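User: Fold this; tokens only.

Assistant: Input:
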Amino acid sequence: MLWWPKISNFAPFFEILCKNLMRFLNKYLVVVGAMLLLVSCRQRQERVVTPYGSVLDSVEVTEDFDLADIQTNGELIMATVSGPETYYDYHGRQLGTQYLICQHFADSLGVRLRIDVCRDSAELRRRLDEGEADIVAWPTPGEIEVGAEKPELAEELAQWYHPDRIAAAKKEEQDLLTVKKVKRRIFSPMLDKRGGIISHYDQFFIAYSRDIRWDWRLLAAQCYQESTFDPKAVSFAGAKGLMQIMPGTADHLGVARSRLYEPEANIAAATKYIAELQRTFADISDHYERTNFVLASYNGGAHHIRDAMALAKRDGKNNHRWGEVAPYVLKLAQPKYYNDPLVKYGYMRGSETLDYVSKIRQRFAGYQGVKSPHAGFHPSKPRKADQRKKKYDL
């Protein structure tokens, strides 16, 4: 006969059953919660940044995100600090011994290399330990560290790397810096001095210089410094045309890359970019001084020039006078200065930028005797918008 408790005893029996069930469920939930917490702690969210700078949806990366996962994801993350031995930007070209070594390693893996520039070695260590970087390129050439949770990547790097790669990277960089920066086919400082003709493109300099309120001869002097009036000139970094417009800058300005070799389109793009730089330095009220800063930024980058201005101001200099800021542009090649907390954009090869501004000013002085072929022209007088050919509107 099946035993069953009496109705009067059922309530205590049910209460005991419920208590035991709750104890079991509580233990089970604690275990499951701990497992979920452990998994979440072993994961990080990482932004996926395309080579063009756009951010895609986040992807979940575990601590054991090793070689195979890096190759599947298509990206190797290198953390480093700014400097001549590590990484720096030079006229749109990424250079530095450590960078070149790591770029060749990434090439051997079949992935792109992403650079995260850190403030100091403490930040480098933190990023590597927390899995935010796959490798760290320390300031000493050849000293490349792989994250502890990536043994396969570490083994691959150890097999690929040998000390000769340091010398090879240095030679590659030196070759890039010593060869002609711009391939030119034309060297023509002035076509007809007596006739007042500087170049074949004077009409475009005259027309578009009005938009930026420059003397057209200054724009011509800058063009000569950029390309010696060669519309087919191209730099080692990929800048093209009369005014050496970078493809990325063309994209930013809304100019088709295919048009960069067209003289008028190239000059129009350059003046549009110069107008942006003028707005960037609108805090400099003196037109002559502001133009010097614009020229320097066109060559070396506005961010670096702003870094030099910040250092000059700290030291009690007038940071709106080019003559007082220029020495700090040079100093940005020294660790004491490019590692200064005030400096946001790191190392810079400033000697070429100073030379660039100086030569343009000297050439402009030589062009001063050239008359404008258009009577009544004044460099600061804006031209009417309807005078421009519509097909070159930007």
